[in-house]
Amino acid sequence: MSRQSDLNRFYSLMQRLEDQVGGKQKLEDCTGYMDWPSRGVYFFFAPDETRENTSQLRVTRVGTHAVSQGSSTSLWDRLKQHYGTGSRSQNHPHGGNHRGSVYRKRVGEAIIHRDDVQDQYPSWNQRWSSIDRERDTVRDEEYSLEKKVSSFIRRKPLLWIRVDDEPSKNSERGFIERNTIALLSNYEKETLDPRSSTWLGKHSPKQEIRESGLWNVNHVEENYDSEFLDLLEEKVAQTTTEP
After folding, report:
1. What highest taxon heads this organism's lineage (predicted)?
2. pTM
């Protein structure tokens, strides 16, 4: 089968999943009280990006969690890191911590480069361990950008599947994640479902993001195993409860 055919199959499975769960969600409408599976794989879509010659929204971020043996992170734990802080946060409501979410970090990088404000956020790509200043000071400096990142991510349509296997580098979740990324990525491959010129990822300093069309860096250069689509179809069929 061609990559185009496999892409079409993938998106037909996304449509089936959406129909089964009652529609896409947005993080801004989600809470930890919802009926989340313990473990799963999630798919973020861009509301202003569609596939070529169709009205179907394009996936722009794929992720999972707890792929290291012994990890206890739940699906909601991971999504909450992308969500950031809530309205009741004492110091930084609707902000977040991009050092705990690579997705947030990459979106923030792209905003910095789009707006040419590198001098305003000199510590954005630094780990806490390498920053000499007090953390509270850095958080205050980065707060305005963290709010922009939260606003961007929370409004993205979202679907997820239930894949409740044990944490492991050979988990089914990891298999689905990396092969989905490899299938969707245009990095060093034929361009399918081209990205619009207004997609924020075009401003990323990461070549992998600019060229893949995804907010992912890992696995974008890899070849995919089309057998993952059979497993994905199985997991979609098992994810039938509306959140």
Report:
1. Archaea
2. 0.95
